């Protein structure tokens, strides 16, 4: 039995509210159970120096967690003067995931920065961030197209992510904190809406796993991403 009482293949309740930030070109508040992330997209008429005069656009991300997003206060990274390794790793993951779903030549020489701020954490913050970030990006691109600044749609497809793992010997979908902290195997699956894989992060947490278990987790992830894509479509 899972701590939440959910079935092995059951997602937490997912909701996505759009247009939550007045000034951002695209924004949403995504809630996956008790994990809540504010995602905003900002359009900049410039690209990184290495893309100058290439005709290619860029999508990047920044990630952060509010001090009381967790059960004990975390010191703001700004107060320490540097980002932690986990923060850097997650925001790079978000950027890679989003770029996989974008035709950067159609985007043109501009940059879209996605900010993902975790308001409340209960496991799966990176996956919720990726799923919400795509919605914010979609809204920003729609605004550019409506203004005639982009001729063809650069969005290749939906991008969403979900966690899966082995908890109490069983493969489970969408781990919350109680499960994540005790899981024997933990994995994050990032996919396009058509089921193609963008990135898989899997590791044994005190145990090892078989190929058959990895296949089981991938099957669960496909189901979860399908439900997340449906939530994205409903929000838009």
UniProtKB/TrEMBL annotation:
GO molecular function: 3'-5'-RNA exonuclease activity; tRNA binding; tRNA nucleotidyltransferase activity
UniProt signal peptide: none
Domain Exoribonuclease phosphorolytic: 10-140, 159-224
Enzyme class: transferase
Keywords: Nucleotidyltransferase, RNA-binding, rRNA processing, Transferase, tRNA processing, tRNA-binding
Catalyzed chemical reaction(s): tRNA(n+1) + phosphate = tRNA(n) + a ribonucleoside 5'-diphosphate
Keyword tRNA-binding applies: yes
A biological process term (GO) from this entry: rRNA 3'-end processing
Enzyme Commission code: 2.7.7.56
Binding site for phosphate: 86, 124-126
InterPro entries named in the record: ExoRNase_PH_dom1, ExoRNase_PH_dom2, ExoRNase_PH_dom2_sf, PNPase/RNase_PH_dom_sf, Ribosomal_Su5_D2-typ_SF, RNase_PH, RNase_PH_bac-type, RNase_PH_CS
Keyword Nucleotidyltransferase listed: yes
Family membership: Belongs to the RNase PH family.
Known function: Phosphorolytic 3'-5' exoribonuclease that plays an important role in tRNA 3'-end maturation. Removes nucleotide residues following the 3'-CCA terminus of tRNAs; can also add nucleotides to the ends of RNA molecules by using nucleoside diphosphates as substrates, but this may not be physiologically important. Probably plays a role in initiation of 16S rRNA degradation (leading to ribosome degradation) during starvation.
Subunit record text: Homohexameric ring arranged as a trimer of dimers.
Name the record gives this protein: Ribonuclease PH
Organism of provenance: Pararhodobacter aggregans
Gene: rph
């Amino acid at each position: 039995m899972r701590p939440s009482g959910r079935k092995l293949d059951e997602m937490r309740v997912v909701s996505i509210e759009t247009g939550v930030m007045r000034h951002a070109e695209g924004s949403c508040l995504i809630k996956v159970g008790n994990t809540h992330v504010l995602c905003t997209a900002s359009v900049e008429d410039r690209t990184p120096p290495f893309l100058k005069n290439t005709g290619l656009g860029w999508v990047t991300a920044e990630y952060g967690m509010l001090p009381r997003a967790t059960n004990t206060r975390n010191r703001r990274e700004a107060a320490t003067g540097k980002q932690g390794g986990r923060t850097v790793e997650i925001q790079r993951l978000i950027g890679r995931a989003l770029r996989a779903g974008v035709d950067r030549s159609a985007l043109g020489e501009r940059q879209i920065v996605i900010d993902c701020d975790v308001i409340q954490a209960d496991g799966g913050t990176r996956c919720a961030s990726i799923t919400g970030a795509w919605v914010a990006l979609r809204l920003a691109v729609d605004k550019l197209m409506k203004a005639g600044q982009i001729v063809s749609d650069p969005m290749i497809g939906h991008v969403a992510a979900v966690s899966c793992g082995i908890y109490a010997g069983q493969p489970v979908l969408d781990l919350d904190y109680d499960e994540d902290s005790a899981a024997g195997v933990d994995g994050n699956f990032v996919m396009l809406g058509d089921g193609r894989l963008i990135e898989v992060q899997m590791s044994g947490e005190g145990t090892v796993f078989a190929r058959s278990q990895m296949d089981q987790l991938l099957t669960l992830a496909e189901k979860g991403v399908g439900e997340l894509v449906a939530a994205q479509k409903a929000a838009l």
